[in-house]
């Protein structure tokens, strides 16, 4: 691609973030050119964010109906699954799965709740008093 034809299609970042693309300059040499985005990539990013939002909404419905703990919301929001979260929190997967149940979540020790909050980069109050309605 020629240097002056590098796409500048702003996406979800509104042109704030930029990335390096390689293009050919007037002398036929490859050069780095900054781009604010490319339409096909923007479409894929939008679709991915829609999927993430849908997963968060599904988690919130499960929390509202008493079928899941707030951990599920933050897992969806941070794009984690049980395996990844268990690696971060240094617990077996079966324990993380138990903590996804409201009954088990309510019995967690303060130290364990603090660990989850730290991983999700939230404060303890946000986790313990999570309201899926907001």
Can you walk through the features of this model?
With 134 residues, the chain is mainly alpha-helical. A two-stranded antiparallel ribbon has the order 1-2. The longest helix has 26 residues. The chain is elongated and about 70 Å long. The relative contact order is 0.11. The model has no long low-confidence stretch (mean pLDDT 91).
Write the layout of secondary structure elements.
Layout (H helix, E strand, L loop, with lengths): L18 E6 L5 E6 L3 H26 L5 H8 L4 H8 L3 H7 L2 H5 L3 H11 L3 H5 L6
Antiparallel strand pairs: 1-2
Spatial sequence of strands, sheet with the most strands: 1-2
What class, by secondary structure content?
A: mainly alpha
Shape: elongated
Oligomer designation: single chain
In what range is the share of β-strand residues? 5-15%
Write the H/E string, N to C: EEHHHHHHH
Question: Can you tell me the CATH class of the largest domain?
Answer: Mainly Alpha
The Cα radius of gyration reads: 21 Å
Count of helix runs? 7
Question: Which consecutive residue ranges, at least 5 long each, have pLDDT under 50?
Answer: none
Largest sheet: 2 strands, antiparallel
């Amino acid at each position: 691609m020629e240097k002056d034809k590098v796409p500048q299609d702003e996406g979800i970042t509104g042109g704030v973030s930029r990335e390096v693309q390689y293009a050919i300059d007037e002398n036929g040499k490859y050069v780095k050119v900054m781009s604010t985005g490319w339409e096909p990539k923007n479409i894929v990013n939008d679709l991915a964010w829609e999927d993430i939002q849908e997963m968060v909404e599904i988690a919130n419905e499960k929390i509202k109906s008493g079928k899941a703990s707030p951990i599920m919301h933050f897992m969806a929001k941070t794009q984690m699954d049980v395996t990844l979260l268990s690696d971060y929190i240094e617990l077996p997967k079966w324990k993380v799965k138990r903590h996804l149940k409201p009954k088990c979540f309510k019995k967690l020790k303060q130290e364990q709740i603090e660990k989850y909050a730290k991983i999700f980069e939230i404060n303890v109050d946000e986790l313990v008093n999570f309201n899926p309605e907001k």
